[in-house]
Amino acid sequence: MQTIDRIFEEPILELLNAAFSEQRSSARRPFFRPVTITTFGPQRTKLSAFSMDISSEGVGLLHTMPLETHGCTAVRIPIAKNRQLELNVDIKWCTPCGEGWYRSGGHFVRSSARQVKSVGLATRAVKLRRRRQTRHPLFRPITLTTGDAQQKIFSAYCRDISSEGIGLLHAIPLEPDACAGVSIPTTESNQVELSVDIKWCEPYGQGWYLSGGRFKKLSIEELPSFML
């Protein structure tokens, strides 16, 4: 049976181009990790969330409740082992992102020179790791389908992508060496269907898991019709 090594060449290129475009349009560097957000006001609310990207001036966030624009929040960010940095953030925008999630962006307020330096050191460390991994940030909601007998279908997120594999964020654990189906929207009406071999999965934040997988080699007969 004939097989191909570079599967889904055109869809993967499309996703990589989208990743490059998103990275060029923002001066912020990828900085994905669990954070804690505390809102100010009459009722202080604390929620677990994720940072998406960061710069010396601001941060992008992912969270499960909307945040008031032009409202100030405190964001506690882990920047090294056993070390966290708390910064005040003025939320500039907030928009829905997938089922039950929101993305927002804000500027740091009243940040000290030491805090700004700490952010810079942490982002440079992330950049060095990313160079070794050759993956590009591409955050968007996706649909995951497990390859087991139950074939669970659930919402998840793509974190980054390369020509060989993908990074995922999801709410249930995945078995290493298992196969999963990944549906990634490329436009409002189109999506890419990929088969992924899950290589690792580990807890990350409250009730969430990170995993990484490699795109599966498929036979020519298994390619979807729009690839032929």
Description:
The chain is an alpha+beta fold and 228 residues long. The radius of gyration is 19 Å and the shape is globular. The longest helix has 21 residues. A 6-stranded antiparallel barrel has the order 1-2-3-6-5-4. It has a 6-stranded antiparallel beta barrel with strand order 7-8-9-12-11-10. The chain has 2 domains: 101 residues, Beta Barrel (Thrombin, subunit H), CATH 2.40.10.220; 107 residues, Thrombin, subunit H (Beta Barrel), CATH 2.40.10. It contains 2 helices and 12 strands; from the N terminus they run αββββββαββββββ. The N terminus and C terminus are likely disordered.
What is the secondary structure topology, with strand pairs?
Blueprint: H1 9-24, E1 29-39, E2 45-54, E3 58-63, E4 72-80, E5 83-96, E6 102-109, H2 113-133, E7 136-146, E8 153-161, E9 165-170, E10 179-185, E11 191-203, E12 209-215
In CATH terms, what is the fold-level topology of the largest domain? Thrombin, subunit H
* Structural Rg: 19 Å
Number of domains: 2
Q: What is the average per-residue confidence, as pLDDT, rounded to a whole number? A: 77
The helix tally amounts to: 2
Largest sheet: 6 strands, antiparallel, barrel
Task: Give the strand order of the largest sheet, numbering strands 1, 2, ... along the chain.
Answer: 1-2-3-6-5-4
Query: What is the terminal separation in angstroms?
Result: 16 Å
What fraction of the residues are assigned to beta strands by DSSP? over 45%
The coarse silhouette is globular
Architecture per CATH nomenclature, i.e. the level-2 architecture of the largest domain: Beta Barrel
Q: So what's the CATH class of the largest domain?
A: Mainly Beta
Structural class: alpha+beta
Low-confidence stretches: 1-8, 218-228
How many strand segments? 12
